[in-house]
Design brief:
By secondary structure, the chain is an alpha/beta fold. It contains nine helices and five strands; from the N terminus they run βαβααααβαβααβα. Strands 2-3-1-4-5 form a five-stranded parallel beta sheet, with helices on both faces. The structure holds 2'-deoxycytidine-5'-monophosphate (DC).
């Protein structure tokens, strides 16, 4: 069983995908963390995020087990991740890892849930259930701002909204694997939906498909 959960930043897809994986006993892969891991490695090597050769080197030598979960969450890494994610050879270098994870979950789980931007369209076009989780940019920025404030950031909500819109534009407008719902994806707009309601709707869709 392969489930794709795509959508823009801060729409709630990570929380939803994690909860679904726990509920069904499936493996979970946050594919954004791979692009963040690449971006972090590029920045640590002293290169600019736009340096494609540095991005490809980082992607080809990326060890997903060694990605630092805290260091990849800074606004600088978020920004750099959307830059390296637009580079076709960077995407190609981490495609095989994602597909292997989906087809052979690491601990023999009976299914895998991958969240990202292009899981239902490119990484796992044959996924059994495809979800596309979205919410308005203002609501997503507000959630992200609360999260950042909680971890001590002093960024203003206006700045966070500008960053969210910038990243949306980069993720949507890039030529390779742009962010978009697969034709057969179920849309879940969480603007006015609690996480419990989104979870309930997703569980029903997955149970239907499991038969
Ligand atoms: O979901 P996130 O914010 O952690 O993703 C970080 C960046 O990586 C984001 O700008 C989009 C990109 N990304 C992507 O292009 N494809 C994916 N499958 C996952 C993330």
């Amino acid at each position: 069983m392969i489930i794709s959960v795509d959508g823009p930043a801060a729409a709630g897809k990570g929380t939803l995908a994690r909860a679904l994986a726990e509920h069904f006993g499936y493996a979970y892969l946050d594919t954004g963390s791979l692009y963040r891991g690449v971006a972090h490695a590029v920045l640590m090597s002293g290169s600019a995020p736009q340096d494609e050769a540095a991005g490809v080197r980082a992607a080809e030598t990326l060890d997903p087990a060694k990605i630092d979960p805290v260091a990849i969450r800074t606004p600088e890494v978020s920004e750099a991740a959307s830059v390296v994610a637009a580079m076709p050879p960077v995407r190609a270098a981490i495609l095989a890892f994602q597909r292997r994870f989906a087809e052979n979950p690491p601990n023999g789980e009976p299914g895998a849930i991958l969240d990202g931007r292009d899981i239902g369209t490119v990484v796992c076009p044959d996924a059994d259930v495809k979800l596309y989780v979205t919410a308005s940019a203002e609501i997503r920025a507000h959630r992200r701002w609360l999260e950042l404030k909680g971890s001590g950031s002093e960024l203003s909500e206006t700045q966070v909204l500008a960053d969210v819109k910038d990243r949306d534009a980069r993720d949507t407008d890039r030529a390779t694997s742009p962010m978009r719902p697969a034709d057969d994806a179920h849309l879940l707009d969480t603007s006015n939906l609690s996480i419990e309601a989104a979870f309930g709707a997703a569980v029903a869709l997955i149970e239907q498909s499991r038969g």
